[in-house]
Amino acid sequence: MKLANLQNLIFQFVVVKSVLVYPPPNPIKFPTSDQQTLINGDLLTDPLIVETVKHVESKVSPKILAIPPSTFIQDSTVTYNAPDPSAAGTCYWAVGQCLRSSDTSDFQADISICKNLNEWGVTYDDGPSTQVPGTKELLSELTSQKLLTTHFVVGTNVLLYPDLLKQIDAAGHQIGVHSWTHHPLTSLSNAQIVAEIKYTEGIIYKTIGKVPIYFRPPYGDVDDRVRAIISALGYKNVMWTIDSSDTSGIPNSEVTARMTKVFEGTNPDTNTSLTTGVITLEHDYLDNTVTSLAALNSYKTSSKLLKPQPVGQCQGLNSNQWYLNSDGSNPANKSGSTDPSKPNTSHSFKIQNILFIFTIIIVTFLF
Ligand SMILES: [Zn+2]
Region Disordered: which residues (predicted)? Predict the structure, then answer.
């Protein structure tokens, strides 16, 4: 056994595990609604953030938290600095769309597909928005088609348009967290990533009284460091199978054609039949979103159709399992742990105990 692995195992037991507080404590103040202003200064020394960073440090290996941040260039563009972004290294999504398919002691697996072939997890990012069309028009079309979907909302927009978030929630859709500033998270410090999530969680809780269990990173900009912080804060990282390309600048008709193919069970990128249930990426504030959604109504007579639904539903959760319970436990965790960030506690606890005993034997043998 390598010394680094041994140190990591000892770390897992020496550091006192802390538990996230529920309901989430109010911050002293929320960040501004300006997405160009990164969260810094006294917003990072708020007890809410300081205590949550301690929690993250008690759960995640130091080597994961030491993965170097990328360098922000502009919008979604960063220069990635960790030496190996492949799956063997830090699994940086933007390089080969790397995903983690199984849980580790540092993070939970990514969600990127629906469980069954005929299921379509529909997601809308970046809302709520007041553009026309925007959230209101999207909600109206979803209601007229009797569809429920998942909405990953941005903290600045919830701060500006709380009534729109209430409308999304009241209509029965699933709400997830999509950061405060919509900045690429790999370029931020550990404390800033915590702040992006906790302030957004806080404004969502203040608005609708619920804490979501799903998180989507802006631009899909995620690596193992970001993944581990998301997991330590109790969230599942939700990516996607197919990008609608609604932000790419292609004509609305092409976005509609792509989403129609998905609806009919074809991958629009490869023109081959889908082999898994899918999760699609769309955005709340674009006219092609509503246009492509409205087009689905004309195709409903086809026999080979996927069933659009919220991601939570296609992961086997009913609607009362999309948010933390009133005691702070995560209803999606089989063990019913009261620590929302700890999946399958009893199982992992047993494994950890076995590893601990093994570590003690090795240490005794060596010294
Ligand atoms: Zn986004």
Answer: 325-345
